[in-house]
Fold this sequence. Notes:
Number of strands of chain A: 9
Number of helices of chain A: 13
Strand content of chain A: 5-15%
Strand order of the largest sheet of chain A: 3-2-1-4-5-6
Oligomer: homotetramer
CATH superfamily of the largest domain in chain A: NAD(P)-binding Rossmann-like Domain
Amino acid sequence: MTPSIAYLGLGSMGMSMAARLIEASYPLTVWNRSAGKAAPLTGKGAREAATPEDAVKNADFVFSMVADDRALEDVVSGDHGMLSAMKPGAVHVSMSTILPATAQRLAAAHAERDVGYIAAPVFGRPEAAAAGMLWICLSGKAADKERLLPIIKPLCQQHYDFGEEPQAANVIKLSGNFMIASAIEAMSEAFVFGEKNGIDQGRLADFFGSTIFNCPIYKNYGRIIAEQRFDPPGFRLALGRKDIQLVAETARSSNVPMPFLATLQNRYTARVAKGGAESDWTSIALDVASDAGLVR
Amino acid sequence: MTPSIAYLGLGSMGMSMAARLIEASYPLTVWNRSAGKAAPLTGKGAREAATPEDAVKNADFVFSMVADDRALEDVVSGDHGMLSAMKPGAVHVSMSTILPATAQRLAAAHAERDVGYIAAPVFGRPEAAAAGMLWICLSGKAADKERLLPIIKPLCQQHYDFGEEPQAANVIKLSGNFMIASAIEAMSEAFVFGEKNGIDQGRLADFFGSTIFNCPIYKNYGRIIAEQRFDPPGFRLALGRKDIQLVAETARSSNVPMPFLATLQNRYTARVAKGGAESDWTSIALDVASDAGLVR
Amino acid sequence: MTPSIAYLGLGSMGMSMAARLIEASYPLTVWNRSAGKAAPLTGKGAREAATPEDAVKNADFVFSMVADDRALEDVVSGDHGMLSAMKPGAVHVSMSTILPATAQRLAAAHAERDVGYIAAPVFGRPEAAAAGMLWICLSGKAADKERLLPIIKPLCQQHYDFGEEPQAANVIKLSGNFMIASAIEAMSEAFVFGEKNGIDQGRLADFFGSTIFNCPIYKNYGRIIAEQRFDPPGFRLALGRKDIQLVAETARSSNVPMPFLATLQNRYTARVAKGGAESDWTSIALDVASDAGLVR
Amino acid sequence: MTPSIAYLGLGSMGMSMAARLIEASYPLTVWNRSAGKAAPLTGKGAREAATPEDAVKNADFVFSMVADDRALEDVVSGDHGMLSAMKPGAVHVSMSTILPATAQRLAAAHAERDVGYIAAPVFGRPEAAAAGMLWICLSGKAADKERLLPIIKPLCQQHYDFGEEPQAANVIKLSGNFMIASAIEAMSEAFVFGEKNGIDQGRLADFFGSTIFNCPIYKNYGRIIAEQRFDPPGFRLALGRKDIQLVAETARSSNVPMPFLATLQNRYTARVAKGGAESDWTSIALDVASDAGLVR
């Protein structure tokens, strides 16, 4: 029998994934904290629920993709939260970028109610989500993951299994976002270095993006930095700062000194102090440039 | 008529390139500061010269690939240096990683003697050199580059032209080595972060090297870091430190603050202080790990 | 009429201050979370209370000096907490090093119950506390501070008034601890630089401590660093790390990039990762030395 | 017999010291690279020389205080340099802030000509020089220093002997300037932290300068930072950057990682990039403030 699915959180990523689940003919219920997002989905047959509780009560799988740890805890166990309404045996597929410690706590709370919890953060920009070309990282109980695999097929080009510890996939996600942020800073410094020594930033982005760094992160972000396409944002700086803060908290609690991370934290703080929270997170390049006396 | 070529500097990179030029049937004279390197090449028909001066006197193109700025200046205009012996109209193809300022000075000195100077630093490890799969960056006079293009065909998968300013390609090379060093540090931090939070370093290297960072730098160096293959070195830390120092000097003279670069400089200094100058430059990962209390 | 005083928290600082209040003939009730600390004080006439609630019920002034924000919140409003038991019009003199945000929240909670709240963090080591030679920073309602002044006379060589905003004195305290930690790092780097260039660390400490840096912080900490007197600790590294973390949280919420602070955070994290949490906070000098290849 | 003295380099420090030597009745010859500085001294009886060579030929002691290593090497052994003109047995008292390596090289060159060389860098601002209240650090041959002591009495409140290694006093000077620059950065960060959390910068400077940091560096520089008195400069940022660069070169050659130093280097680079080379070196506080979104 076709499993019933709920999708909670209709940001640009969630919206695309929900749409693909409908196209794959799953009965879908959706919910979003702020109203008015669901129309494109209800038009295709999705049901819109008024609360997480309402959304999940008949679901076999519940996907969630929300802004941060607090938003997720609210969706799970706040007023009209989902957890107490879920069917025994159902599975929560938790895609938000959150602290590993939060994942551990949530997994335990789900287990107490006989509900599965799978951490399933993704890599990929909204276009990749729309094309079903995400990379999905999974951690959680083996049996739950096995049941999930056919469901996520329309969403990703590949999934990666990081074992049964509930927080493992979140550790991967945080590691990855740190590495992406580091690549952005490294390019920003290198490109300003190049510019002040006579090389056009676009030339640098093209050269490196087609040779030793010919991978999505350098190709895409390299162009954005060189062309200063910081607005509208692909990923808001305020969100990037939040993610880097999650890395910092996890690094602190596990006692890992990370000097690159420290530089990044100061970069985001400066951008926010100067009013740049709503631009793309690559806009730290503006301060790399202004520190070098370049006027943008 | 087939041009005559000299190759000065038979390190692992130079050796492979010289061998490919012989295979391509160019008459080749070689020279190396320390003796005993040329045998594999003379066995294939190369002539070995006793001095740079002797090596270049009949050459139409002189390639040089030596350890640093000082070594190059010595080869060019030290005792029995090459410059005063070169034929008018011949071209020096300068492949060493040197300061842009040195390139400018050398180009001017060559021009005074009616000798061409092309900066031609390369990207790629020794295996890529042996396979003729390097990426070569060029800058210098257009006419000289045009004459050079057929000659470098057996050496590279692709060449990139950065215009007529003699130092431009050196700026690219320094930018690139800085970005590589930054990627190594970022991976080292991320992998230790992962390890202390329960993820095997090899899993991290594999995952990122096949998804968002599926490019040579992350794939190759990621494996080396995860497997701690620091000896024998692919690229000695002492040389990496030298290159990063060239970036720092150029950044200082062009007034570019680079916080990631500053972190890297301290990393290499610490490694050298602890006796690690002769290991691979990825071995800074040892200090990232020991700073986090991990015993290797 | 002589006011009645309670002192909550009998660490080395609190113990010395409580003793001086007894000597100054104030009726004193004391409390400490772990038992067995009060004996030297009860021997001189202090009453020991079993809970904060019990300790404060007749007090006109309640001093508190506990480990961190959480401990203070517990003392104030946890089980058998003090706040609900205080007399209207009494004043809480809050000496712990805490977040300014916590001070604001506590001040509001006190005001609701008609209880005064004065932030009163101190500078000075335990010996200064024992000698009544602390520097006390005050912020809070003017009328409350005026009543407090005669009481703190036996405790300090001088007090400084930072106005009526409840958190102001905490901002001063955090600024100061950051500056002290920075001085420790600066000396550690300078002394290792000196040592590796032929100068004895003790000579450096003496010279600077008697010339351009002839102030308590450099004189005292300079000797400790040069003589490597890290155990037993004067101020535990774990506590220093906590304080620096409070600075970091406040800097983040007020959007202040602080690169020196970032370096310090990594230093403390590394020390804790290597098992050094219980030594003096100057023991970061050990890592400055080992990073430079010096074996201690 | 009263020794004859030459003073080379009449910047604000040299001028004040030369004046005090005249007042102490020493026969004095002076020289400065750019003309028109000597008038106040010749008016009091000094002889002005046209070249270093001319200035030193009858001198028993030659003081020098010039801008940097290159300027000093020029004065010593450039065209009409001093060294070849000095009397055997005379002593060069070298007060400039230079590399320890330069001091070693110069000391050897002096010894070959039977001329003494004493490194004698000073601490103190121009007002201290005018009042004879400098602190002078000495290193060099014991016999030379013994002869020098009566001569420097009018210049300093105290001298400190760092032994016979010629470069030792220069190591002290570099250590000290690094520590001063670190204190400036630490205050700048702390004061902006304070300001953004409601505390006036002047209050912070006063409080710390009269309590835990009641020493010249914090008192003087604290006021300058709080009052933003960056022009005219007391010590030009370009010179501060040069000194910090000397520390960096010495740290690199002796393999000492110094993260605070790295932050400082980037600060000065940014200031110069933004056109601030001629302001006081405390003006890095402007960037600390602007990074935090404060408009000056």
